[in-house]
């Protein structure tokens, strides 16, 4: 699991509500974002296709709080390059908790009642519903609509529960749009716990954090920060040591920690030093439970033993960090999997948003803990793998399995997978 690059006092992007702004070219998506935020965040132009890639901006937006706004390319982009841009928009949808579909009001009136009315918007509305993404349909440029136009569009869009006539130019109903998004609610993941629901006030949690060449200078990486915070919110007491001092740290404690949480890379050594009356798990396994489906990833780990010569393993990370010479994803894990299976395997690597939709060429997917991904995108990746019958696990679960300590690493959860 890699460093997120977030400032110490900022809400991590993965814990923010992700709001995607979708619509055709020149529907006014970028103008609407600027109106919502009261800032010139997005470039506005009359030229079609100004937004060529999804652009994300983390900010505070009342009454929602910490959010990420995602400005996307037009849904109707054309040509070979346009198809690539639309593909980027589809990828952006995977991480959206909420969506705003922007409709150009005057353009919609001009084709009202025709076969091409709401094309390609219907496809995207169906995508929102299928993926259970709450959305608002915002009819923009409403300052150019007559009362009769509004009546006609309202009748045609009567099935839409959250329909608003807005104007990025005049500010009409922008406040109502913000209120509608707030009413749709925050994603459930923001209400969950990483480990705090498994700890009681006063209990000790020993965190083992290696400080090696891959560790950022002067600070802890995001999952470590978040676990510490979660422990403190539960009233538990986090005790922190490197793996080299872990054994001595245990001896100095007045009572045994309830759980030892280790970096996956130190799993084998820490397991040997952890007493049998103490639970053991890893940061990566905790995030597999917090972000997605731990049971699916535990089952996926068993596929490592069934790998055959010549198959391809996909190793995917949610972030894009600078890789060290002993990087866990591209160096250590492939080496460990090859040694464990004694097979000649092919490895492919993706990072950031580059997670393929077609997984048919892979025998196994090994994913990082996903600390920089929001729960929506992590669950989408898991569902994509499950739907195509491809086993998927994560770093910590795979390492624990290969070291024969996976069963012990799951005892903490007591059936709460």
How many DSSP helices?
15
CATH superfamily of the largest domain: P-loop containing nucleotide triphosphate hydrolases
Q: State the order of secondary-structure elements, H for helix, E for strand.
A: EHEEHEHHEHEHEHEHEHEHHEHEEHEHH
CATH overall fold name of the largest domain:
Rossmann fold
Reported CATH architecture of the largest domain: 3-Layer(aba) Sandwich
Helical residue percent? 25-40%
Beta strand count: 14
Structural class comes to alpha/beta
Strand content: 15-25%
Shape call: elongated
* Unreliable runs: 1-8
Mind telling me the CATH class of the largest domain? Alpha Beta
Q: Can you walk me through this structure?
A:
With 417 residues, the chain is an alpha/beta fold. The protein folds into three domains: 13-189, P-loop containing nucleotide triphosphate hydrolases (Rossmann fold); 196-286, 3-Layer(aba) Sandwich (Rossmann fold); 293-402, Rossmann fold (3-Layer(aba) Sandwich). It is built from 15 helices and 14 strands. The chain has a six-stranded mixed sheet with strand order 2-3-1-4-5-6, with helices on both faces. The chain has a four-stranded parallel sheet with strand order 8-7-9-10, sandwiched between helices. Strands 12-11-13-14 form a four-stranded parallel sheet, with helices on both faces. Strand 11 (312-317), helix 12 and strand 12 (346-351) form a beta-alpha-beta unit. The radius of gyration is 24 Å and the shape is elongated. 41% of the residues are buried. Mean pLDDT is 88; it is low at 1-8.
């Amino acid at each position: 699991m890699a460093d997120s690059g977030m400032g110490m006092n900022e809400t991590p992007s993965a814990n923010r509500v992700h709001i995607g702004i979708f619509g055709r070219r020149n529907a006014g998506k970028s103008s609407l974002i600027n109106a919502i935020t009261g800032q010139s965040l997005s470039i506005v132009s009359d030229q079609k296709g100004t937004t060529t890639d999804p652009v994300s901006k983390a900010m505070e937006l009342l009454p929602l709080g910490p959010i990420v706004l995602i400005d996307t390319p037009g849904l109707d982009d054309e040509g070979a390059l346009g198809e690539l841009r639309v593909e980027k928009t589809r990828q952006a949808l995977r991480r959206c908790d909420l969506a705003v579909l922007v409709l150009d009001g005057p353009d919609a009136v001009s084709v009202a009642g025709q076969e091409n009315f709401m094309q390609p918007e219907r496809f995207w509305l169906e995508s929102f519903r299928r993926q259970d993404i709450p959305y608002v349909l915002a009819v923009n440029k409403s300052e150019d609509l007559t009362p009769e136009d509004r009546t006609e569009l309202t009748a045609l869009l009567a099935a839409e529960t959250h329909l608003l006539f807005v104007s990025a130019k005049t500010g009409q109903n922008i406040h109502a749009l913000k209120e509608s998004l707030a009413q749709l609610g925050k994603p459930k993941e923001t209400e969950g716990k990483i480990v705090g629901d498994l700890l009681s006030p006063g209990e000790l949690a020993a965190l083992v954090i290696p400080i090696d060449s891959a560790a950022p200078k002067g600070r802890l990486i995001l999952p470590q920060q978040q676990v510490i915070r979660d422990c403190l919110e539960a009233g538990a007491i986090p005790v922190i040591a490197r793996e080299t001092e872990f054994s001595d740290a245990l001896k100095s404690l007045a009572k045994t920690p309830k759980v030892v949480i280790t970096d996956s890379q130190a799993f084998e050594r820490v397991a040997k030093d952890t007493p049998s009356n103490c639970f053991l798990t890893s940061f990566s396994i905790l995030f597999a439970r917090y972000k997605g489906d731990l049971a699916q990833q535990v089952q996926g780990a068993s596929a490592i033993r069934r790998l055959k010569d010549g198959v391809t393993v996909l190793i995917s990370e949610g972030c894009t960090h600078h890789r060290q010479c002993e990087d866990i994803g591209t160096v250590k894990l492939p080496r460990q999997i090859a040694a464990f299976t004694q097979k000649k395997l092919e490895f492919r690597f993706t990072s950031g948003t580059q997670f393929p939709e077609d997984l048919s060429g892979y025998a196994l997917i090994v994913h990082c803990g996903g600390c920089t991904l929001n729960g929506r995108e992590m669950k989408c990746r898991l569902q994509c793998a499950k739907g195509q019958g491809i086993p998927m696990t994560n770093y910590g679960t795979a390492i624990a399995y290969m070291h024969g300590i996976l069963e012990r690493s799951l005892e903490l959860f007591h059936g709460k997978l």
